[in-house]
UniProtKB/TrEMBL annotation:
Residues of the Beta/gamma crystallin 'Greek key' domain: 2-42, 43-83
Entry keyword Cell inner membrane: no
Database matches in InterPro entries: Beta/Gamma-Crystallin, Beta/gamma_crystallin, G_crystallin-like
Coiled-coil positions: none
Family as reported in the entry's similarity comment: Belongs to the beta/gamma-crystallin family.
A Pfam entry, by short name: Crystall
Gene Ontology terms, MF aspect: structural constituent of eye lens
Protein name per its UniProtKB record: Beta/gamma crystallin 'Greek key' domain-containing protein
Higher taxonomy: Eukaryota, Metazoa, Chordata, Craniata, Vertebrata
A GO biological-process term: visual perception
Length: 181
């Protein structure tokens, strides 16, 4: 399905460890706050700044990432494997809470900043795939991972109401890392 090889230094130097399951607290495997580069084979992984998948996040898709980025270098405390089938993704976004108002079905990366839905979305339902939802159209700001079959009736629960400007699927073939600030 997928694995990640973590390295303590940039450019795949120093100690390394291979993981193939979620880790809620990297202290449990003696790797908290010391990851500086990674290799991903198969499905994407989400790295979180804090334990229990909280704080800033960084998505690593398949490939070699010789640096994790200065904002997250040596600050990763939990890792989660994206296990969803990433083919034929689909998410429905809604203008208001409780899936009310105008809706739109999305099946590909979409910059809402250039259309009618910028900063207007308040809830969603994920039919297929795993999606990265971002506050700003360049993929920065607050970001959220929306996973298959998730139904989030109110973005107020994550302090994200009327802030969505960009969303894209996570994809094992996507060629770069998205840094969440």
């Amino acid at each position: 399905m997928g694995k990640i090889i973590i390295y303590e230094h940039a450019n795949f130097q120093g100690r390394s460890k291979e993981l193939n399951t979620d880790i809620t607290n990297l202290k449990d495997v003696d790797w908290n706050d010391c990851i500086s580069s990674v290799k991903v084979i198969g499905q994407p992984w989400v790295a979180y700044e804090h334990i229990n998948y909280t704080g800033q996040l960084l998505v690593f898709e398949e490939g070699e990432h010789s640096i994790v980025g200065k904002e997250m270098d040596g600050k990763i405390s939990s890792l989660m494997l994206i296990t969803e089938n990433l083919h034929n993704p689909q998410i429905t976004i809604y203008e208001h809470n409780q899936y009310q108002g105008k809706s739109r079905v999305i099946t590909e990366a979409t910059n809402l900043d250039r259309g009618h839905y910028d900063n207007m979305v308040s809830s969603h339902k994920v039919q297929r795939g795993a999606w990265l939802l971002c506050e700003h159209s360049d993929g920065s700001g607050f970001c959220y991972i929306a996973r298959e079959h998730e139904q989030l009736p109110s973005y107020q629960a994550i302090n994200f109401n009327d802030k969505l400007s960009f969303l894209r699927l996570t994809d094992k073939y996507y060629p770069y890392i998205i840094l969440i600030l």
